[in-house]
């Protein structure tokens, strides 16, 4: 199977395979970093989002379902994967789930020659390595392929060429254009991206701000008031992109002229939306991501959200004191 994978690239270059199945912002940022790694190491790039939570048909590579991208980005060839069954078979023997987690900062510093680089977080990974050695022991040239499943890194302007080439699929782009014309034209639109956290969720970088939910919501309200105080305009609209009914209801209750793209928030606020209703909200989430980039001003709460990172590349971001 891996020999078949080696033939996917029409060139003799080595291949970087980006595989991730988390939130959209996370997935895209991962793909951008995989592109940069490919550029710096003279590799072709294969973005594989098969077995995706965002589509009911697990055989479809959801990256190329939801997005379009240039065939070559700053010298890096992007391989359009069609044989997703290959990756599903790899998963079935535990290959893709064996971590293959690469630390981005280290990869950018070294001349990568090893077959794989692991992030050994717990005993699972140690056991997985031994299992993988048995699976791959008889295969040759495996160092031609680098699987990148997780990265830990900082935002970088070097990633922008990847996002410059990224476009929503045509059927999504048409809905973005329609919503923009109907709701943004003639208004100064402030895009609000607010990420919600509940203590039952997996802890992340922005969890601390939500330790006291009522206090956090009031802080968000005050921050939005601070933004509005800097713009004495009569035609302001607030475009809200959020992942929870809690924040959606709070913002609409406390501010006028709030608009949102219609989507279902589900019934369980203790679960992240992309875990609770992944395929049901996938299209709306992508539309929101691109709509944020078309706003006149962007407010990111938290400021380091990967979901709103795309919009921050193309829209002025409000800087809080």
What does this entry look like structurally?
By secondary structure, this protein is of the alpha/beta class. The chain is 40% helix and 15% strand. It contains 13 helices and eleven strands. It has helices spanning 2-6, 24-40, 62-66, 84-92, 104-109, 123-136, 160-165, 170-183, 213-229, 245-254, 273-276, 278-293, 309-312, and strands spanning 14-19, 43-48, 67-68, 72-73, 76-79, 145-148, 167-168, 188-194, 236-242, 258-259, 297-301. Strands 4-5-2-1-6 form a five-stranded mixed sheet. The longest helix has 17 residues, at 24-40. The termini are far apart.
Shape: globular
What strand order characterises the main sheet? 4-5-2-1-6
Element string (H = helix, E = strand): HEHEHEEEHHHEHEHEHEHEHHEH
Number of helices: 13
Q: Helical proportion? A: 25-40%
Largest sheet properties: 5 strands, mixed
Uncertain runs = 88-129, 131-142
Label this structure with key terms.
11 strands; 321 residues; alpha/beta
Which SSEs are present, and which pair or pack?
Blueprint: H1 2-6, E1 14-19, H2 24-40, E2 43-48, H3 62-66, E3 67-68, E4 72-73, E5 76-79, H4 84-92, H5 104-109, H6 123-136, E6 145-148, H7 160-165, E7 167-168, H8 170-183, E8 188-194, H9 213-229, E9 236-242, H10 245-254, E10 258-259, H11 273-276, H12 278-293, E11 297-301, H13 309-312
Parallel strand pairs: 1-2, 1-6, 2-5, 8-9, 8-11, 9-10
Antiparallel strand pairs: 3-7, 4-5
């Amino acid at each position: 199977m891996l020999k078949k994978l080696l033939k996917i690239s029409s060139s003799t270059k080595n291949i970087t395979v980006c595989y991730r199945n988390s939130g959209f912002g996370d997935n895209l940022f991962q793909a951008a970093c995989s592109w940069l790694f490919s550029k710096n190491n003279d590799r072709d790039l294969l973005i594989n989002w098969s077995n995706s939570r965002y589509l009911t048909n697990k055989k479809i590579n959801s990256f190329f379902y939801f997005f379009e991208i240039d065939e070559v980005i700053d010298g890096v060839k992007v391989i359009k994967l069609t044989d997703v069954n290959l990756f599903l078979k790899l998963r079935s023997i535990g290959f893709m789930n064996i971590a293959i987690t690469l630390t981005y900062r280290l990869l950018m510093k070294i001349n990568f020659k090893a077959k794989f680089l692991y992030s050994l977080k717990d005993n699972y990974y140690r056991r997985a390595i031994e299992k993988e050695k048995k699976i791959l022991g008889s295969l040759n040239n495996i160092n031609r392929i680098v699987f990148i499943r997780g990265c830990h890194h900082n935002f970088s302007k070097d990633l922008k060429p990847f996002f410059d080439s990224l476009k929503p699929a045509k059927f999504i782009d048409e809905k973005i254009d329609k919503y923009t014309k109907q709701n943004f034209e003639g208004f100064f639109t402030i895009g609000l991206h607010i990420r919600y956290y509940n203590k039952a969720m997996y802890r992340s970088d922005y969890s601390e701000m939500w330790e006291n939910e009522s206090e956090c919501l009031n802080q968000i309200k005050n921050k939005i008031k601070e933004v509005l105080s800097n713009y004495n305009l009569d035609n302001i609209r607030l475009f809200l992109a959020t992942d929870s009914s809690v924040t959606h209801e709070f913002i609409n209750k406390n501010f006028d002229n709030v608009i949102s793209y219609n989507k279902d928030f589900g019934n369980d606020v203790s679960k992240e939306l992309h875990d609770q209703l992944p395929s049901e909200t996938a299209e709306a989430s992508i539309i929101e991501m691109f709509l944020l980039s078309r706003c006149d001003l962007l407010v990111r709460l938290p400021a380091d959200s990967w979901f709103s990172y795309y919009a921050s590349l193309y829209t002025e971001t409000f800087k809080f004191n």
